[in-house]
């Protein structure tokens, strides 16, 4: 048999917190499962034998049809604010945690059936949203952006009712922890302070040990935790804004305590640059518009701060712990944008130069990814026309270019272009690319998913012959409607 059988040595992990935090239950099987895709990279990081991953046993296990030896599956309970409103208890309504591997990775099956937290939901996820989550998890990783990962996505002909009848799929996703801000809000709202403290202590011990160390010198480990989560969140948001990633549903239950991108739903990578872009068709007020994301993250951190208040003990300290986000985000963001411009060191006028550029890009609705990639090639190889052609207002662009060239001249010659080509991706998971792969997958042709997985795993490489995946979106792309329905 395969050398890794049982394939995964488990450790207690989240389950050690005790039954107040979850319900143990098994996934509900799905008929006639089939493979859609798997990430060899994630499999390797879990120490899974590739032969096992190719087996029928793996297919059944990762669809939730047979238990993995030693795993004690569970669904966790959390609460949260959705669209700015307290929603009360939510929880893993369709994700089931299989456990934590000895190497410290949790494995969760999303779409694995109903749980006590499903509310009105059916516990399932459909093919299209599962392919989007699978691909985007791996795309984010390829971009160097913190994210939950995806080991596999499997499908089943089982019908699932959404706006129309679709079919079921399961994503096996992987992260050091799936704990959300909403887990803390849950116990705080119920005044279960012992559980709240146990959760915070668990998170500090496992993921933020430096907060405990800091505590010895300076007082409050829980305030340090809030500060540290804020800083990780600031780094995450800076990366989202720089790459043009719109999450779409930044509810507090979709905010990772580890600062990971989590819960891929109606997300979108920007096509044309519009700072006000709303990717989620269910978001009629634009609460989660692209340019609102950094503020929403702060609002969400504020909710986390409120939840941690009984542990921190002083409002003043909690507020002080939220402050670093407000300085760290702009600093990280400007740092990322400087790198996109090929500017290795910081200078006084950089923010103003960037601001002028963003206005130009927004005014002309210039394609975000293509602009940055072409600018990189201009700096690396001198081809100006492809960049200039993107702008209708040539004079304004030329003026900006003059300032940019002067600024660039102060950098070490030859390094800027290299930096830019490693910072500005050629390939991102645009909506229409996902949509085309999904259409093929519905006909049981998974070649589109495979190709995207390959390209998105190394999005800064040229991948000769694959320029179709790096081109402008077709007209119909702007009519794709992605909502919370998944
Ligand atoms: P989301 O908007 O996907 O982050 O989900 C919000 C909440 O609804 C979470 O508690 C999910 O577990 C739950 N949920 C979403 N879709 C379903 C579904 N089809 N069945 C059960 N629960 C769901
Ligand atoms: Mg969610």
Q: Assign a percent range to the helix content.
A: 40-55%
The overall strand count is 13
Oligomer: single chain
Enumerate the spans where pLDDT stays under 50 for 5 or more consecutive residues: none
Average per-residue pLDDT, rounded, comes to 95
Count structural domains: 3
In DSSP terms (H or I, runs of 4 or more residues), the helix count works out at 17
Query: What small-molecule ligands were found?
Result: adenosine monophosphate, magnesium ion
Give me the Rg, rounded. Answer: 23 Å
Structural class: alpha+beta
| Main beta-sheet strand count, sense and barrel state | 7 strands, antiparallel
Strand content: 5-15%
Shape, per Cα inertia axes:
globular
Describe this structure in words.
This protein is an alpha+beta fold and 486 residues long. The chain has 3 domains: 13-178, no CATH class; 191-339; 343-421, no CATH class. Helices cover 44% and strands 13% of the residues. The chain has 17 helices and 13 strands. The protein has helices at 40-45, 50-53, 56-63, 127-143, 181-189, 193-207, 209-218, 221-243, 293-312, 315-340, 350-363, 368-381, 385-388, 394-408, 415-421, 431-442, 447-457; strands spanning 10-11, 22-24, 34-38, 74-76, 79-82, 85-89, 95-101, 106-110, 125-126, 149-161, 165-175, 245-246, 268-269. The strands form 4 sheets. Strands 1, 3, 7, 8, 9, 10 and 11 form a 7-stranded antiparallel beta sheet that branches. Strands 2-4 form a two-stranded antiparallel ribbon. Strands 5-6 form a two-stranded antiparallel sheet. A hairpin with a 2-residue loop joins β5 (79-82) and β6 (85-89). It is globular, with a radius of gyration of 23 Å. The mean pLDDT is 95. The site of adenosine monophosphate (AMP) has 16 residues, from loops.
């Amino acid at each position: 048999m395969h050398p890794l059988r049982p394939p995964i040595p488990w450790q207690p992990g989240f389950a050690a917190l005790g039954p107040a935090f979850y319900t143990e239950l098994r996934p509900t099987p799905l008929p006639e499962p089939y493979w859609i895709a798997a990430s060899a990279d994630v499999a390797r990081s879990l120490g899974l034998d590739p032969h096992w991953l190719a087996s029928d046993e793996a297919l059944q296990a990762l669809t939730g049809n047979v238990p993995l030896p030693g795993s004690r599956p569970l669904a966790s309970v959390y609460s949260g604010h959705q669209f700015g409103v307290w929603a009360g208890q939510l929880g893993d309504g369709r994700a089931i945690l299989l456990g934590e591997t000895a190497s410290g990775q949790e494995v969760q099956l999303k779409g694995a059936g109903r749980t006590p937290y499903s509310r009105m939901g059916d516990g399932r996820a459909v093919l299209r949203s599962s392919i989007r989550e699978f691909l985007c998890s791996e795309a984010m990783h390829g971009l160097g952006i913190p994210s939950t990962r995806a080991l596999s996505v499997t499908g089943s002909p089982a019908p699932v009712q959404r706006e129309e009848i679709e079919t079921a799929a399961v994503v096996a996703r992987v992260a050091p922890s799936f704990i959300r801000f909403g887990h803390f809000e849950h116990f705080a709202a119920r005044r279960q302070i012992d559980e709240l403290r146990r959760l915070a202590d668990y998170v500090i011990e496992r993921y933020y040990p430096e907060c405990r160390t800091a505590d010895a010198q300076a007082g409050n480990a829980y305030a340090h935790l809030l500060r540290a989560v804020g800083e990780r969140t600031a780094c995450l948001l800076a990366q989202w804004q720089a790459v043009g990633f719109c999450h779409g549903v930044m509810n507090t239950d979709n905010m990772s305590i580890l600062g990971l991108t989590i819960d891929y739903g109606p997300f979108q990578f920007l096509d044309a640059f519009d700072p006000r872009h709303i990717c989620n068709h269910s978001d009629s007020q634009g609460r989660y518009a692209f340019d609102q994301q950094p503020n929403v993250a702060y609002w969400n951190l504020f909710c986390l701060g409120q939840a941690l208040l009984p542990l921190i003990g002083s409002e003043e300290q909690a507020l002080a712990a939220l402050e670093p986000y407000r300085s760290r985000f702009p600093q990280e963001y400007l740092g990322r944008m400087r790198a996109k411009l090929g500017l290795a060191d910081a200078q006084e006028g950089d923010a103003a130069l960037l601001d002028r550029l963003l206005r130009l890009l927004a005014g002309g609705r210039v394609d975000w990814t293509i602009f940055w990639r072409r600018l990189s090639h201009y700096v690396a190889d001198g081809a100006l026309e492809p960049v200039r052609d993107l702008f209708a207002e040539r004079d304004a662009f030329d003026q900006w270019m003059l300032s940019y060239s002067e600024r660039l001249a102060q950098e070490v010659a030859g390094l800027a272009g290299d930096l830019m080509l490693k910072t500005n991706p050629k390939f991102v998971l645009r909506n229409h690319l996902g949509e085309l792969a999904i259409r093929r997958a519905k006909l049981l042709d998974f070649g589109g998913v495979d190709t995207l997985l390959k390209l998105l795993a190394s999005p800064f490489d040229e991948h000769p012959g694959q320029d179709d995946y790096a081109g402008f979106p077709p007209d119909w792309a702007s009519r794709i409607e992605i909502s919370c329905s998944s």
